[in-house]
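Hi R.,

Here are the chain sequences for the assembly we discussed:
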Amino acid sequence: MAKTLLVTGGAGFIGANFVRFALANRPDLRIINFDVLTYSGNLENLAGLESDDRYRFVKGDILDPEALDPLMEEADGVIHMAAESHVDRSIMDSGPFITTNVQGTQVVLDAARRAKGGKGVGRFLYVSTDEVYGSLPLENPEVRFTETSQIKPSSPYAASKTAGDLLSLAYFHTFGMDVVVTRCSNNFGPYQFPEKVIPLFVTNLLQGKKVPLYGDGKNVRDWLHVDDHCEAILAAFDRGQAGRVYNIGGDNERSNLDLTHSILSIMGHGEEMIEFVQDRPGHDRRYAIDASRIEQELGWKPTRSAWPEALVETIAWYRDNQDWWKRVKSGEYLAYYEKQYGASA
Ligand SMILES: NC(=O)c1ccc[n+]([C@@H]2O[C@H](COP(=O)([O-])OP(=O)(O)OC[C@H]3O[C@@H](n4cnc5c(N)ncnc54)[C@H](O)[C@@H]3O)[C@@H](O)[C@H]2O)c1
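And here is the predicted structure of the full complex:
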């Protein structure tokens, strides 16, 4: 029998890719996408799915228990990924991060727990981040984050995600809720809001603008194609052990400077298009994920993140979908929504 997943934040970058990936690869799944459509939630990311009878969009806020309750009755599990997601915005104003990522997660957890006369909704998967572990020094390239590494978030974004992550695990320990947590590295792919480094740099270059590189550019990130992340989330949802954390990574560490050089070279530009800008306050130096647990226990391995091929493919997507990001970058997408999707947006 088909299972119904309640996905929060399914109109954002990872959410929309997840909804598409799950519907395309798992005929046994139905999806309810619950999203309030903040600046980064975009129904255009889901265009074409409106007529799929295994998919339904519900506009709503994770802070609203009354909106969540009836959906929890229908669902067999929750993939909770609605969040404020951009570190720079959390430095400018951490308020929405605490409200959405901490309090919002508590509301979703409580709704999941009280569903079905207190039996609970079923499995609850919290989509967390490698940023909960904080920063590694550049000097010890052999050291990577495992699931037992110290939790030491540095940015308000990371601290708010850590709170949601640990709260979810607390609901497993305290209430016996069926919770699994995944902690993933940096994602790239289609439909990413162009405030994040790859779509920002690619769309700037397509507009003839320079790319703003923080500090000395030596900060290292582990890059994973979003579809690999989606597949790992499903593996953890299906086969993960309750109460357990699974790191997800691409084994694909790149400094921001290397990443920038790759983007410039793929797009036929030179170094003169780099503009070094003042570093982000508290900028984590290095993230590196040891994903051996999910590989060994659940048999998941990244297969779509090969470098630079996957980057070339992603750049081509932004080159071929200029209407999408031009609307998003200019803010015009809000007016476009209303015309395209009427009151639901
Ligand atoms: N992007 C990455 O590289 C990455 C890596 C690891 C983990 N994550 C996590 O994955 C999740 C998705 O990240 P993303 O990059 O797709 O973010 P995103 O900003 O593109 O999408 C977030 C989505 O959540 C929705 N949302 C926000 N507040 C809401 C609320 N109150 N109620 C309902 N919906 C709300 C937004 O409308 C949007 O659709 C986040 O939890 C993030 O922390 C992201």
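The first strand starts at residue 3 and ends at 8. Residues 341-345 have pLDDT under 50 and may be disordered.

Let me know if anything looks off.

Best,
T.
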